[in-house]
């Protein structure tokens, strides 16, 4: 029970994620089969739909936009600040901060990670590991979206008796960028809303909010 409580946030989001993906698969299959029947072709099974480029591109394009959001937020908040927002560092702390502030090298604590005590490439990698992983997942998701999107796009073109396009032609096409940018703009708006609204609004007990009684100008303070 203690383990469940200490990991309840991650577990809750994992369960919701699996339910959402399962729901998307079922709903997407039903929509896809409805289109198949309208075109006079055979419907597909859930397993075949989940393995299709149609499902893959829908999943990948959402993943890459989410990880782009987190990557940009992680990297930009190193240097950029927003006065009054708990999502920002205090203005005087902008930048990579000192070794003492970051508890690395000789300033590491007894329970600090091993790679925080060393120097060189290992320290650099560990110091930037979150941004590197988020950026890598974004790039891989973007690549998966482009490959699956090309396959789905070419399937539609062949159905309309048009020639398929190359990967390079697809990733420079309006089809690809329309799908990408409509996801990016919503993610960027969500981050902007969170940064600005958290200056003036509160959610008692949430670490994403300032304490209810904190001044609107308080920056980098979490409840």
Task: Give your account of this protein's structure.
- The model has no long low-confidence stretch (mean pLDDT 91).
- The protein starts with a helix and ends in a 23-residue tail after the last helix.
- It has 2 domains: 1-51; 63-95 and 129-223, no CATH class.
- Helix 4 (53-79) runs antiparallel to helix 7 and helix 4 crosses helix 9 (174-200).
- It is 64% helix and 0% strand.
- With 223 residues, it is mainly α.
Keywords:
elongated, mainly alpha, 223 residues
Number of strands: 0
User: CA-to-CA gap between the ends?
Assistant: 26 Å
Helix proportion: 55-70%
Oligomer: single chain
SSE succession: HHHHHHHHH
The Rg value, from CA coordinates, equals 23 Å
Shape field: elongated
Figure out the total of helices.
9
Number of domains: 2
Strand composition percent: under 5%
Backbone structural class: mainly alpha
Please outline the major beta sheet: none
Average residue-wise pLDDT: 91
Low-confidence stretches: none
In terms of topology, how is this protein built?
Elements lengths: L1 H5 L1 H31 L7 H5 L2 H27 L19 H4 L18 H7 L1 H31 L7 H5 L2 H27 L23
């Amino acid at each position: 029970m203690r383990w469940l409580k200490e990991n309840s946030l991650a577990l809750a989001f994992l369960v919701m994620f699996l339910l959402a993906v399962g729901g998307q698969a079922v709903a997407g299959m039903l929509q896809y089969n409805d289109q198949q029947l309208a075109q006079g072709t055979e419907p597909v099974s859930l397993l075949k739909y989940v393995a299709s480029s149609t499902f893959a591109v829908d999943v990948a394009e959402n993943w890459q936009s989410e990880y782009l959001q987190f990557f940009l937020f992680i990297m930009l908040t190193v240097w950029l600040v927003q006065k009054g927002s708990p999502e920002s560092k205090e203005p005087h702390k902008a930048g990579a901060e000192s070794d003492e502030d970051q508890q690395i090298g000789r300033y590491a604590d007894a329970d600090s990670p091993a790679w925080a005590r060393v120097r060189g490439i290992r320290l650099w990698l560990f110091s930037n590991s979150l941004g590197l992983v988020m950026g890598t997942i974004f790039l891989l998701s973007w690549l998966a979206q482009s490959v699956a999107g090309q396959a789905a796009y070419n399937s539609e073109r062949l159905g309309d008796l048009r020639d398929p396009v190359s990967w390079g032609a697809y990733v420079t096409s309006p089809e690809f960028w329309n799908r990408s940018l409509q996801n990016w703009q919503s993610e960027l708006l969500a981050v902007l809303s969170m940064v600005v609204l958290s200056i003036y609004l509160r959610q008692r007990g949430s670490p994403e909010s300032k304490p209810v009684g904190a001044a609107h100008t308080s920056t980098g303070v979490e409840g």
